[in-house]
Amino acid sequence: MINAATTTFIAIAASFSILLFSCPPKSYYHCLFVSNSLSDNASISNHLYMLTRRPHVAGTEANAEAAAYVLSTFTSYNIKSYINSYDVTLTYPVSRSLTLSWPSQNQPITFDLLEEVYDGDPYSDVAGEVMPTFHAYAKSGNISGPVVYANYGRVEDYVTLKAMGVNVSRTVVLARYGKIYRGDIVHNAYEAGAIGAIIYTDRKDYCGGDTGDGWFPDAKWMPPSGVQVGSVYDGAGDPATPGWASIQECERLSDEEVEKEGYVPLIPSLPVSAADGETILRSIGGKVADEDWGGSKDASPYRVGPGPGVVTLNYTGKQVIASIQNVIAVIEGIEEPDRFVILGNHRDAWTFGAVDPNSGTAALLEVAERLRKLQKRGWKPRRTIVLCNWDAEEYGLIGSTEWVEDNREMLTSRTVAYLNVDSAVYGAGFHASATPQLDELLKQAAQQVKDPDNSSQTIYDSWSGSNNSPAIGRLGGAESDYAAFVQHIGVASADMAYGAGYPVYHSMYDDFVWMEKFGDPTFQRHIAVASIWGLVALRLADEEILPFNYLNYAYELQESAKDLEDEILGKGISLTPLFKSIEDLKKAAIKVHEERKAMEKGRGWSMWKKDEFKVRELNDRLMMAERAFTDRDGLNGRHWYKHLVCRVNFKFRLF
Questions:
Q1: Which residues have CB under 8 Å from 336's CB, separation 6+?
Q2: Which parts of the chain span the membrane according to its record (predicted)?
Q3: pLDDT tens-digit readout, 191-226
Q4: Which of the following is catalytic: 278, 393, 394, 405?
Q5: I need a labelling partner for 386 at 20 to 30 A (CA). Which of 176, 215, 367, 612 fits?
Q6: Are strands 383-390 and 310-331 parallel, antiparallel or unpaired?
């Protein structure tokens, strides 16, 4: 005879079984997320087409319309969404001119500074909306001087010029894009004594060089008239509100104070095309540059000057306080709504932005759509997922930085990780960078997603290549919207994309036609990026114990410390305390790993056996460990940057 106690036990067990088997495990939804049944390359293609119909620079009506499109798309998926606005300092061109004179020419050459519309261009009707080529935050001025060719404008290039006996003082530097940030090109020219800087696109690097393929629209390369525009601001966030949010009526630095901060250029600059750059190069005499300073095989030898060519550069910009719009969408977590997994991509573009950034925006909308499909099938995240579409990234990571500064305390205490996709697709080959505790998670996600260019293998297989493991980069500097999360508040972060760089970068030729013909004709690379991006987010949002591995962090720090030890050998500096601290981190990482394994034993009965407070405490230690690498006062001379490791690409420096 069955007694009452037995009956009660059977009832409880039956209830548990119903609960256990009626709700699929989170891993089921994760596999479903990357399945073909949920992905939609036609939807991604349509999103990209809609987002790139007009040029949409930050602060313009067209970009506000793009924000409205993103908001309406999120809303159509029944995801709680809203616009988050800031009033920030932006600059636009008012007038610019460039003339060249040299003894062999009777008349000065006046450059038209125009990117040409090609025959059959479907965007010819809105080409007039493309902003005149310029550098954001460039200093206004009218300067004239002999030209010096400075290769890529790096510090070492000026060392070479000095060794050649070239005096850069009071000259106008001509440098080419390709190796360093354009703002650093202008800064280095100023430090060398130049009065202005012209940055051009060299055929060797962007226009097909010696391939003979031609250029867009017949090939992927930049046309001779193409110009790479962009910002020359060296900071993050609104230059007039360093460290605090640009909300209405907030305190702002004066123009003089902004210049003293050291992040805006102190000499005028202008970007020009390959054709215009070559014309200026032909006016330069002096010594012949080394072969590695030269152009494509059919190009004449490059000379360094100074002169005899003389350029006159006139640039006038206007500075405005403009409204920018971040679009924020929130899927609230069930068990831990106060823990955030944040995905971000920016929306603003210098022109049409099919690659940079709206391939990423289209992928973000694809992730949102798939998450909604999971919700319809019963999925509910453990932690809150936040989808962010940033504005004014191109000017200097402004939308994301202002949001982080505005919500600093909340984000510092609640953010599990930030996952960034700037541009989802540049071309072939998957690439990722991250803080090291996310390395294994990225690799595992890549093992679950098919290679869009070879269905017989996974992305992990192609990413690894002939190596035993794929190379994962590090998030040094401030190259995209992860900067505020990593560098300012110390949040574990990752950045990912298909491809790395593309020829028509920041030009009017970065449009839907280029993407459809050369970047991703089937839009399967977009699908792949959305799959890995979303899968990593799902695991961070759903797994009971956060999938962080700090052993990777300790091992990498050890290697960096050994490199530093070699650099300072014989200088009387001991790194013993540093090595001891890294060893302590390693021991702590091992201990946490053992704690995790102990908690995961008997996982099927976790609701009966596991102390949820212990899990929470372990997760908080994993989440907050990245914060421990930050310093409240920031780096010497760069106080906004708080992270002591990531700012320098995981290579130690003595500050």
A1: 382, 383, 384, 616
A2: none
A3: 999 999 999 999 998 887 667 788 999 999 999 999
A4: 393
A5: 612
A6: antiparallel
